[in-house]
Design a protein that fits this description.
378 residues; alpha/beta; seven-stranded mixed sheet; 46% helix
Length: 378
Amino acid sequence: MKLQIDPNVSYALALEGGGARGAYQIGAWRALTEAGIHISAVAGTSVGALNGALIAMGDLDRAEELWGNIHYSAVMDVDDDEMGDLLRGDLQELDLHRVMQKVSAIVHNRGLDVTPLRNWIRQVADPAAIRASEKEFYIVTFSVTDKKELELRAKDLTDDQLHDMLLASAYLPAFRIERLAGKLYADGGVRDVLPLHVLIENGYKNIIAMRLYGPGIMRPVRIPEGTDVHTIAPKGKLGGILEFEAEQSKKNLRMGYYDAMRFLYGLKGNTFYIDSQWSEEQARQFLCAAVRRAGGEMTLRDVHEQRLPALARQLDAEDGDYRDLAAALLEAAAVRRELPCWKIYTEQELLTAVGDAAVDEVLAPEEDLGKLLTLTEM
């Protein structure tokens, strides 16, 4: 595989807010690290700020351990089992009277108590390590008291200020907002859920934005000439913003890793990750053979002018060349065979794994390709 970005330059990361979905960004960081990508700066909003602190500190193994073992009570003062059942809608497992009492208390107290998150931040975020880091780190939050967005350089903050502003940036709407040093703050997503502008205004020319599609406002940003912004974004489901469960976080870590690999190496596929090794002629020959098996006697002109364009429409693969269409067809067959998606396949490896029969089944006239290719929760 060949890197699709220049490994000889440094990159700045813009980390979007998205609550419990944040493990995705740490998985992507793993892929960037393995590829030898140098990170010079990080700007984060909400959970992006918490992840930014971990990235600035440089302890990837610790970050993966923290997210891989996350639970509701590490963030909010709640019972893990009850919170999980509530968010899953599993009413049979709930003591509804007790839950309603707790909900009433939460409403009375104006939100969920996030004392555990405050303690977690103080245990995990090491101000000395962040200040000593070669990476610049910017925290985005919103001052309710002053009615303005704040973009704070971490190295300019005292230990207490750093911890407070990390908490301030992560105040999701469901959390109880408390005064920090006499002021009220709200989640940075109130004004800027993806802090690209902070990096642009500080002169960074090569930026990688890590999306979570969290709640908040996307601040309009003009990308100056000479500035490149790349994006790593999920195509699968990351779960809810309050779904602080280890199982979901482990899935998000894995998805972040493989989606970053797709970005880094130009892998094809939506659900699967395909390292394209075929030439366009090899892909064309594969497609022609497949549609002729499925359609019986067809002229080459019918294959190229009718059947392949129709297949491209059915597979939502009208952009690109024959390699893209071949990858889409192989992916549809792999979904049908329920192959594991968490690995990188070449076209030939995927074809060997699914077999011609699965490809033929996808091309059967009665096959509902649209239904088949609907992304399922990973």
